Predict the structure.
Amino acid sequence: MTAALVADGVAKRYGNAVALEPLELTVTTGERVSLIGHNGSGKSTLLRLCAGLIEPSEGTIAVAGHPAGSLAARAQLSYLGDQPVFYDDLSVWEHIEYVARLGGNGQWVPRATELVERLGLAQRTDDLPASFSRGLRQKAAIALAFVRPFSLMLVDEPFVGLDVSGRRALLELLLDAQHAGVTLVVATHELATISASHRVLALRDGELVFDGTPDEADTADVT
Amino acid sequence: MTDPDIVPAPPSPAVDRTTSPTGAAVVGELRRARQHRRLGDQEWFDVAYRVYLVALAACAAIVAASDAVNDAVVTRATVADITRHGPGALGLIAAVAVAAGLRSGANGGPVALEAPDVRHLLLAPIPRAVVMRRPVAQRIRSTAAAGALVGVVAGVLAARRLPGSTTAWAAAGAVAGGCAVAIFAATAVVAHVTRVPQTLATACGAALVGAQAVAAATDVPGPADTFGSLFLWGMRQHGVDVAAVTVTIGVVAFALWRAGELRPEPLLRRADLVSQLRFAVTMQDLRTVVLLRRQMRNEHARARPWPIPFARRAVRTSATTLGATVRRRGWHSIARLPLARLGRSGALAILAGFAVVVTLRGTTPAAIAIGVCLFAMSMEILEPLSQEIDHRDLTGLSPAATDAVLLRALVVPAVILVPFALVGAATIAVLEPRAAGAAFALAVPCVLTGACGAVVSIAGETRSPDSTASASLTMPEFAGFATVMRTLLPVAISSVAALPVLAMRALPSADTAVRSSIGLLLAVAACAWWVRKHNDYGERVRAFIEEGRR
């Protein structure tokens, strides 16, 4: 198996505050990993480091063999952040179009149509997502994350604000991606997602305290 | 549920190319679409007419201001003195700009993207230069334009007192001002992409400013002399000064070339703040603007407080009177002021002293700079008051009247302003020894009066809970005027501190100094009274108008 994600002694500090202790991690291609931990344990920091949005204080991260944040690494990954972010002046459909085309997906319309249907956004595609409720914004953000090409997806607290149908749609999308051979790293507190993953990583105060299968994980202790 | 007619497509495979030939085209299309959406409802001739009106009003204001300033033409000896020391002194502006640029770049400045740009464009598989070049160019262009405008105003004012045509001075001012400010933004980008450490940036900036300060005070050539000399092209031209323009163009070109290497992490941090900053600017909320600017500079309260003896004693005290409690809180706040803010306050005190000297030597418009410097310095030091305003809910929970708390919160900042007043006085004493006595006598009343504008700006926000009500009481025709007044009034109040300087210039005597001091202290007392009473009277006025409406 090839490595989709390799963290080599990666750590993050803000001044004297430690956000992430030095971490060694290898995620193989096609693996589905759940990242769990208390608030402030370092989950979002790790995902942002992998996405190349922030830089490690020490160590390196490689995405499919390329340095995190590099052009080649960005071509491989899709990042669904904890806070949906949209332009104030573009509709849902325009967002989808641009994100897909920026990602290099020229034939984006069928995939976009399917995503908005599955997420229940078909009637809202001409609306401005900036004016949406938290749940609708999250659905629009999910559509943007899935419409671009990727082989590694980093997902941070994706279920926040979603209704039952939204949760179900997201779980199905994640499952489809898993079956298609995509590597998934999902930071979450949702037990349904944790049990569907191959592997669970638990962080506490920036330190990796558990790395094993869902069956072995004591989720009550670290979530 | 999913529509059964729609067959779920598997996720697309990752892009298998490392460059995106169409990336630039898509980014361009995205920006054009957004621009079209923003400007869709505007007619081009309407925009052109507005630009024409603003330009006309600006030109009229500059000419009127220069006509209103009836300062005497300087003597030949003074012209010779300016020719000799002017390049060094004016070069100090460029040196400070470069130093500020180094600091800004080391802190992740000067560019701020919108949050969606960071999320969607910087994470897209397209070269980041495609995304970043335009914001960098825009930042440099806008700052250069602002610098050029200030240079034109300074040039027109200089033409009133120095030989040379107004056109020549205005043109020289535009080029020199544009270069001095453009090099700030370009240096910041260069420092950012080359990852200059903060300590190195500070050290290099301090060395540069120090070397230029020596050049300004002596005949030793300084590193930024050509920038200063460029401004004097209104009355004489030196070919070597073109080097300043060349250097600026070179640094700007380097910044644009390396724009794609700006780091996402500071861009992400600044993106979160920039939308709030824009909203605060729209609302003319000066306090919030200052607060967000500090956050963008990554400036936080000190983790370990300064060892201030008063603060320590205050911590141990068990006094429970309102005054003692608020003073304790004030000392705790001051003890957490970051070094950069204290340094900035000191620099503003020196700048105010310099403006006093320039005013005393006959350049009346410099009096405005005195007010602006004292206002800005006070905004830095009035942290205890600002914190009370920012957390008015906490203040409101206490059994004491909010106004009484705010009034007592002024005591500690007033004490802290005294050393800065002495720094300003010392600057005047060094540059104009004849005025040393008056400077030390008037320094504290002047600085406290200068702080009154900042107090009005900050404490005026206590009306905010009812601001919608008060705004609704303002007739729409006067809403714009009221907004302008709210922005300018605090600076105008701070500028009262410059009146004794004009008085001493007209009639330099001990009697003038005493009368001026009494006048200033009365102004400070009036400000304190306003802090204590303005909410009460505001409530009464609002109740009266509401009653009238019913």
User: Anything to note?
Assistant: Chain B touches chain A through 46 residues (CB under 8 Å). The first helix of chain B runs from residue 23 to 39. The radius of gyration of chain B is 26 Å. Confidence is low (pLDDT under 50) at residues 1-21, 463-472 of chain B.
